Amino acid sequence: MTEEPATTYVVSVFEKPSWRTVLTTKDKTKALALAKEIGDKVRVDEITPKPRTR
């Protein structure tokens, strides 16, 4: 059983003094749309877990 690990996109916005997560989704277009809507001081992180080997 070889499943591809699902990529998760995390949208974060900078609020002094640190970054705060706004949205976590598996849809890249939704994450980018929200980041564009928010404007400045936004980042989108892509997280893909490594597959486990046995």
Brief synopsis:
With 54 residues, the chain is of the alpha+beta class.
How would you explain this protein's 3D organization?
The protein has 54 residues and is of the alpha+beta class. 20% of the residues lie in helices and 41% in strands. It has 1 helix and 3 strands, in the order E-E-H-E. It has one helix at residues 28-38; strands at residues 8-15, 18-25, 42-47. A 3-stranded antiparallel β-sheet has the order 2-1-3, covered by helices on one side.
Task: Outline the secondary-structure elements.
Blueprint: E1 8-15, E2 18-25, H1 28-38, E3 42-47
Antiparallel strand pairs: 1-2, 1-3
Distance between the termini: 12 Å
According to DSSP, the number of beta strands is 3
Q: Tell me the helix content.
A: 10-25%
Number of alpha- plus pi-helical segments: 1
* Low-confidence runs: none
Identify the notable features of this structure and list them briefly:
single chain; 41% strand; 20% helix
